[in-house]
Amino acid sequence: MASPELLGEFDLVEAREGMHVEEDHAELANGVPCSSVDAAGEDGVSGKRGHRKGIRKHRDYIKISVPDGRGSHLPLEWWKTGIAFVYAVFNLVLTTVMITIVHERVPAKENNPPLPDKFFDYIDRVKWAFSVTEINGMVLVAIWFVQWLFLRYKAIVGRRYFFLMGTLYLYRCITMYITTLPVPGVHMTCAPKLYGDSQAKVHRILQLISGGGLSITGSHLMCGDFLYSGHTVMLTLTYLFIKEYSPRSFWWYHLMCWLLSAVGVICILVAHEHYTVDVVVAYFITSRLFWWYHTMANVQTLRCSAYNYLTNTWWNPVFNFFERNIQTQVPCAFCWPITWPPACFKNSCKRYSMVQSIREE
């Protein structure tokens, strides 16, 4: 039969061990070290009931909500998104400059008739078809912009979109400069050539930029930008991003956007505004570049693999710069684009009001 003093010491040791176990579990659950509250120090009670009371206070004290650890693997890095945006804008402006240069080299349609095209042999031209293409493109870009606003990781997705768009238009500058094709139809009206008038060329560049490079705005009256189709690039790239960063269960949403994109691409050919090869090459380059980039971004082992020949591409250093800190696949997560009140006006001391009240007790 043990004495009462021995039982009291046993209870005291058991209670202290329980407090240490509670501390260890709290540290593992929350990921942060927590200081324990000694009931004997507050209440002056060193018995069994006193320690249990202290443990209850300790349990209330360490209950801290910690955000999901995924955020550390997906840093937003808005400054990189800004660099990608500048890169895209630069290449879009460069495209307008290149169109102005190539326009001076386009042969007259009276001397060089349109090249034979199999699609044109079977499908007659429809005048209003190209307006459908540009309207579909504007609707698709607007849908993508709204979807992008609600993405949780919009900074990462945004810089991917800007980088791919800028790279595709850089390729387009090269292809339409090295090979100038004659106009695909005698219906096309090209603006007169300016030859050495640099001031008038600058005015044309600004006019093309202000109108977004769209024929529907009346700003695109130059010829020569045929290989490859910029409208096909935007329709294809925007649809691929909409599908990639939306839930897989939204099949009706994907189908609607695919129809907008597909009808827009077909109407380019129906309007005889581009050769068929222009559209095919644009689709091929856009889709492959999108898939190559996202394969490397989503499969982490490919980045450092010696057998990954995609690392030989010229844009691989740029890819590593943008994706270096992205350590996992970007999930399809959404959030409100604007929170109120903004984070800069929130009082962080309110988070610790419960802790302070417990300490004061």
UniProtKB/TrEMBL annotation:
The keyword Lipid metabolism applies. Residues 222-295 form the Sphingomyelin synthase-like domain. GO terms for cellular component: endoplasmic reticulum membrane; Golgi membrane; plasma membrane. It is a multi-pass membrane protein. The keyword Transmembrane helix applies. GO terms for biological process: ceramide biosynthetic process; sphingomyelin biosynthetic process. The chain crosses the membrane at residues 82-102, 128-149, 161-179, 251-271. It catalyses: an N-acylsphing-4-enine + a 1,2-diacyl-sn-glycero-3-phosphoethanolamine = an N-acylsphing-4-enine 1-phosphoethanolamine + a 1,2-diacyl-sn-glycerol. Keywords: Lipid metabolism, Membrane, Sphingolipid metabolism, Transferase, Transmembrane, Transmembrane helix. This is Sphingomyelin synthase-like domain-containing protein. It comes from Synaphobranchus kaupii (Kaup's arrowtooth eel). The lineage of its organism: Eukaryota, Metazoa, Chordata, Craniata, Vertebrata.
